[in-house]
Design a protein that fits this description.
5-stranded antiparallel beta sheet
Length: 178
C-alpha cells in the first residue's frame, strides 16, 4: 500500500513538473534518519517550489512568510521578507531531555537590529503528535532574544521562529535532527 501511494505521488509530481507548475531541488543531507534507531546516515532532502510560467520561483506572500533551513552546525540564518533571522543553539548538539538555550537575532536587511518584535518559538516533531512546546523569547538587546526549552526526545525537530511586529507575522523554520 505504501509503495502504491508513493508511486502515485511521484507520478503526480512528475506531471506537475513536466507541465511547469512545480520545480524540485535535491540536496544531500547529513541529518540522522530514524530518530533513536541508531541512524541510517544521510539522505536527500527534496524541496518543492512553485514556479511561474516564465520559470521564475513564486515568492510567498509578504504578509506571512515561512522559509525552511537546516540547523546542523548549531547556528543558521535566513531571510524572511524584510528581516534576517539568525538562531543559535547551546549546547550543540542539543541533547534530548536536557535544556537547550536558544538565542535569536533579528535585523532588517540593512543590518539594523529589530527591537520592537514579539518573538516566540514553536518546537515540533512533524512525524509525531507532541504536546505544545511554544516558549516565548525575552528581549535582551540590539535585536537579540533569548529563551530556554527542552527537546523531549531524539528525532527530527522543526523549530519555528515566529516574529510578530504590529499586525504582521512572519515565521522562519529550521530543521534539526537529534
Amino acid at each position: 500500500m505504501k509503495r502504491t501511494v508513493a508511486f502515485i505521488v511521484v507520478i503526480v509530481m512528475a506531471a506537475l513538473i513536466i507541465f511547469g507548475v512545480f520545480a524540485i531541488r535535491a540536496r544531500r543531507s547529513q541529518m540522522m534518519m530514524g530518530g533513536g534507531m541508531g541512524g541510517m546516515g544521510g539522505g536527500y532532502q527534496l524541496e518543492l517550489m512553485a514556479v511561474a510560467s516564465d520559470g521564475k520561483e513564486i515568492e510567498p506572500s509578504s504578509e506571512v512568510t515561512s522559509v525552511t533551513g537546516d540547523l546542523q552546525a548549531g547556528s543558521a540564518a535566513q531571510k524572511s521578507g524584510d528581516l534576517i533571522v539568525a538562531i543559535t543553539l547551546n549546547p550543540y548538539p542539543a541533547k534530548a531531555g536536557g535544556p537547550t538555550e536558544f538565542d535569536v537575532t533579528v535585523t532588517d536587511l540593512s543590518g539594523n537590529p529589530v527591537d520592537d518584535a514579539e518573538i516566540s518559538l514553536d518546537l515540533t516533531m512533524p512525524s509525531m503528535p507532541m504536546p505544545p512546546n511554544k516558549p516565548g523569547m525575552e528581549f535582551v538587546s540590539d535585536g537579540k532574544y533569548h529563551t530556554s526549552a527542552p527537546f523531549t526526545m531524539r528525532g527530527w525537530w522543526r523549530i519555528e521562529v515566529i516574529i510578530k511586529r504590529g499586525s504582521v507575522s512572519q515565521s522562519v523554520l529550521f530543521d534539526l535532527g537529534l
